[in-house]
């Protein structure tokens, strides 16, 4: 199956990548729904929903401070680097990610849509003025209007950034090949994107029991390992 996917990539005029938290676990960042995932120990409604921002702001802020601090020790892994090389070689045109860690950009990908925002930039919940993540680590309130500060992530119940969504939808609808990597496809509306694809749909994931109807290829494995195997075949 790896050989088939490599040949699809070789002959594809437009390849799009869709990633989830499983793309970052090899960099040391937990995902959400695996046995070691965030939501096994934290109820997402208490820290990642619009309600959590108002009802228990301190818990909300601690959760994101913890994730921002953890990111300081984290760097892209081999799989991220391969996707950046493939963009440089013209093999990949676009990355749509649910991840908020900016590791695709750190690895070198330029064409990236952050469907769930990012955790490294901060705004005031009321006046929307930007603040630094350093400020957020030490202060809970906006320096202009004294309301609560929050990272620019999409919370449960919020809409996705419209431009990122439209771009990802357009790219996926036009692509010849779409690699869906490291996502459980459990969260709406991103889990609707693969069904909008007209090209070859490839699922690369550690768990492949569900969400795989309609895919042309299913490869069980880690993102880093599978991408490295495909990369070897492409460089032949
Ligand atoms: P929900 O029904 O509360 O959220 C669905 C959201 O998706 C709605 O707010 C809707 O506006 C939005 N949406 C639907 N179609 C859209 C489109 N075409 N363009 C833009 N936005 C569209 O469902 P939920 O299960 O509570 O959560 C899913 C939402 O929360 C999604 O927006 C997801 O991105 C986001 N989310 C973010 C996190 C996080 O920690 N960053 C965690 C989980 C979910
Ligand atoms: N390689 C490949 N797949 C992996 C790896 C890996 N190294 N590590 C984990 N996985 C798989 C897991 O088996 C799981 O199916 O990645 C998937 C991650 O799924 P989730 O934890 O549900 O993460 P994701 O799909 O990104 O969640 C979507 O939910 O809570 C929200 O906003 C949050 O963006 C997130 C969204």
From TrEMBL:
EC number assigned by the record: 2.3.1.286
Gene3D superfamilies given in the database record: SIR2/SIRT2 'Small Domain, TPP-binding domain
Signal peptide start-end: none
The species this protein was found in: Solibacillus palustris
Pfam families according to UniProt: SIR2 (PF02146)
Deacetylase sirtuin-type domain segment(s): 1-236
Metal-binding as UniProt keyword: yes
Protein name in the entry: protein acetyllysine N-acetyltransferase
Domain of life of the source: Bacteria
Residue positions of the active site: 116 (proton acceptor)
Chain positions recorded as Zn(2+) binding sites: 124, 127, 142, 145
